[in-house]
From TrEMBL:
The lineage of its organism: Eukaryota, Fungi, Dikarya, Ascomycota, Pezizomycotina. It comes from Microdochium bolleyi. SUPFAM superfamilies: ARM repeat. Belongs to the HGH1 family. Residues 368-381 have a biased composition (Acidic residues). Residues 283-336 form the Protein HGH1 C-terminal domain. This is Protein HGH1 homolog.
Length: 381
């Protein structure tokens, strides 16, 4: 005889929409406390939930919340992320300018990106939505959605911040890193240039995801000169500004720094999140892999900035990576074994393919809430 909880799970497909609504809302807490109930009967409740994202927006809101929570489980993640038809539905809904649950769709997509097979999304196409000025490649649609939707002008109900976490997970794969670095035919823009501007955004989620994406792309060693070239990506100001405060430097050092760092206001503050600062310094560490970039970092006086970051950020992780970077910048290249040096730096950070704190937790009351545990995104009540 089924328990009351099992009966509640069955009610999510009840013909009466009011009962479906009450059942879906009532099941949200159990999606975190007792996720096993959704695995019954060969994951039939999960299959039912996937169908309900097309239901009334309020029901779909609760269903998406449950699915976000459940996809922290690897078994459920595989069942959901491998469903091509379901992915078609999610991707078609998230780009609609009137979709009220677009942020939840974004969060779910960020979780689904943890499934290795999800990387096939790079080949996926769908009709471009009106008003987004993009092409048929889904990944380009999501990038343009992330940019245009940041201020709520595309969809008044969404900011799409959590797509930053999606990009961070996708950029663990070489094909996506290369896509982020390749000028696109439809608008003539390199995708990384679209998102780099958010390293100082007000949203913690956006800053964290973009910082992790940039770090992952820095694993493309052959593209390091493209990354720092002022007439191409010019990534250094977007890495250095978030880790720079209002400190004053020697005049000679200041004059050699990048132009963007020379006339900072007296109230300039470095990023408040030490994890984001650490990610940026780790990106700089990766960029020291080649002698050409090391020389350039020395030339534009990155060392004084790292020195002040080490001095003023009371965080063990930040201080450790600052010390490692200083050792590299202060080393005499003539005494280094180039190949050994490259191997050491990459090995040190290899675990470093970022998942934007793979452990993400968001709440329904705050778009920017982001805790650091070791699971996927969880939506709480």
């Amino acid at each position: 005889m089924p328990t009351e909880l099992e009966e509640l799970v069955d009610f999510i497909i009840h013909p009466n929409p009011q009962i479906r609504l009450l059942a879906a809302e009532g099941l949200i807490p159990y999606s975190t406390s007792q996720p096993s109930i959704f695995k019954a009967d060969n994951f039939k409740p999960v299959e039912n939930l996937k169908k309900l994202i097309k239901d009334h927006p309020k029901i779909a809101e609760h269903v998406l919340t449950i699915l976000i929570n459940l996809t922290g489980d690897q078994e459920v993640l595989g069942k959901v992320a491998s469903d091509e038809k379901f992915l078609d539905d999610i991707l078609s809904y998230v780009v609609l300018p009137e979709e009220p649950n677009a942020n939840l769709h974004s969060m779910l997509l960020a979780n689904l990106a943890k499934y290795d097979g999800f990387k096939k999304i790079i080949e996926r196409k769908q009709p471009a939505p009106k008003g987004l000025e993009t092409d048929e490649l889904v990944v380009n649609q999501l990038l343009d959605l992330f940019v245009k939707g940041a201020d709520g002008t595309y969809n008044k109900d969404a900011d799409f911040d959590h797509l930053a976490y999606l990009f961070a997970d996708l950029s663990k794969h070489a094909e996506f890193r290369q896509h982020f670095l390749k000028q696109q035919d439809y608008d003539g823009v390199i995708p990384l240039n679209k998102i780099k501007v958010f390293t100082e955004h007000k949203s913690d989620v956006r800053r964290k995801g973009v910082a992790s994406t940039v770090k992952n792309i820095a694993f493309e060693i052959s593209s390091h000169e493209q990354l720092i070239a002022e007439d191409e990506i010019d990534i250094l100001p977007y890495i250095l500004l978030p880790i720079t405060g209002s400190e004053e430097y020697d005049e000679d050092d200041t004059m050699d720094m990048l132009a963007d760092l020379q006339l900072l206001p007296p109230d300039k503050e470095r990023d408040s999140d030490p994890n984001i600062i650490q990610t940026h310094v780790e990106t700089l560490m990766l960029l020291t892999t080649t002698k050409e970039v090391r020389d350039y970092l020395r030339q534009v006086k990155v060392y004084p900035i790292i020195r002040e970051t080490h001095l003023r950020v009371d965080n063990e992780g930040v201080q450790e990576v600052c010390e490692r970077l200083v050792q590299v910048l202060m080393a005499d290249d003539a005494k280094e074994d180039e190949e050994e040096d490259k191997s050491v730096r990459i090995t040190e950070l290899e675990d470093g393919e970022e998942e934007a704190d793979s452990s993400r937790k968001a709440t329904r009351t705050s778009k920017d809430d982001d805790d650091d545990d070791d699971d996927a995104q969880i939506v709480e009540v």
